[in-house]
Amino acid sequence: MKDELKKRIITGPDGFEFEVDPLNDYYCDAPPKVHPPAYVKIVEDLFNWARSESIWILGFGTGCGAIEMRPLMTPRFDAYRYGVQWRPTPRQSNLFIISGYLSVKTLKRVIRSYEQMQSPKYVIGLGSCTINGGMYWDSYNTIKKLDEYLPVDLYIAGCMPRPEALLKGFEDLKKIIRAGEGEGANIYAKNFDWYKANQKKVIQDWDMPDYNW
Amino acid sequence: MRTLYAELNKRFPLGELTVQREDLGFITVEREHLRALLLHLRDLEGFTHLVLLTAVDWMEEGVFQLTYLLSDRKKRCDLGLRVMIARDGASMETIHDVWPTAATYQRELCEMFGIDFPGSPGVHDPFILEGWTDIPPYRREFDTKKYADETFTHRAGRETNDPAEYMKKQLYPDGA
């Protein structure tokens, strides 16, 4: 564990000594809960319609696929006309696009960002690297199967997929959400131990709480 | 390139010169002369830029080859210095005080090849591999595929068919 995460006594600027325990002070590590759907189906359908029409993407490019999102968010392909937009923080977004290969070091940041996002949240795996490792199938440092670590709603195949493929992917994701099948956050909460075990198997130096939102 | 080599050879005992191109050459040097040679090249010959510092693993000979690639921006000329160091307990003198950028290269080499550079700032900090416990991955005895198979889950591929065989089976199921 890193030094800055250890429990220690700190002297403040006013000379007052206090104890700091970063893992407990800065995070809430209560496990995630399953959110039941609304009590009437028509209300839940309304919610899902609203969710599908406001897909906000976390602007976190994990691999080379992030380069495809620049033309997508700028006037040439202009995803904003479909109600899709990019947000700077995990708290404001509900769609995480894993854009390409995911190294173990990045996976750690991805898990933290994913857990900080508000439910309901969706994950798209972009490119063949997220599906089966792609050209990094024998690499010592990239994961090969994204759905072992995060609940993936949709994969977009290709190396790299064109921005048009992403637009089609958004349309498909909207259909999934409207059908009430975009339950990634609940699946994650339900199989939390399984996901954590998989994540900890590849991340050797686990120095964060199990669930940090 | 050859005139420079002749000039340098008067001052330092140098190994052979490999002229790759008119503006790119490599010289093999002993490790104890490297530092003096680097300072000489930087301060007097105009090789002010350290382009890269990298290593090659010659496992069969039991050596690492370090390549210090320098560039003379004015003459548009690159010169690589090759140093052979022993592979067991690999360690090399740091040059971060000659070029501060070397500290990053040395940190990477320490992580990827396990070559120690005592005194280089932050040389043992993890660079891209966090919590790596295996042998350094760029050493050639490291079996990348075996490691990937053991560590990461593999997704089974699609079923594929040889088109000729497949159509034969479809059209003539009784093998006629």
Describe the 3D structure.
The complex is a heterodimer of chains A (213) and B (176). The two termini of chain A are 20 Å apart. Chain A is an alpha/beta fold. Chain A has a three-stranded parallel beta sheet. Chain A has a two-stranded antiparallel ribbon with strand order 1-2. In chain A, strands 3-4 form a two-stranded parallel sheet. With 176 residues, chain B is α+β, with helices and mostly antiparallel strands. Chain B has one domain: NADH:ubiquinone oxidoreductase Nqo5 subunit (Beta Polymerase, domain 2, 2-Layer Sandwich). Chain B has five helices and five strands. Chain B starts with a helix and ends in a 5-residue tail after the last helix. At the A-B interface, helix 4 and helix 8 of A face helix 4 of B.
Question: What's the helix and strand layout?
Answer:
The complex is a heterodimer of chains A (213) and B (176).
Chain A: E1 8-11, E2 17-20, H1 22-25, H2 41-52, E3 55-58, H3 69-73, E4 84-87, E5 95-99, H4 104-116, E6 122-126, H5 128-132, E7 154-156, H6 163-178, H7 184-190, H8 192-202
Chain B: H1 2-11, E1 14-21, E2 24-29, H2 31-43, E3 49-58, E4 63-72, E5 77-86, H3 102-112, H4 144-151, H5 163-171
Parallel strand pairs in B: 2-5
Antiparallel strand pairs in B: 1-2, 3-4, 4-5
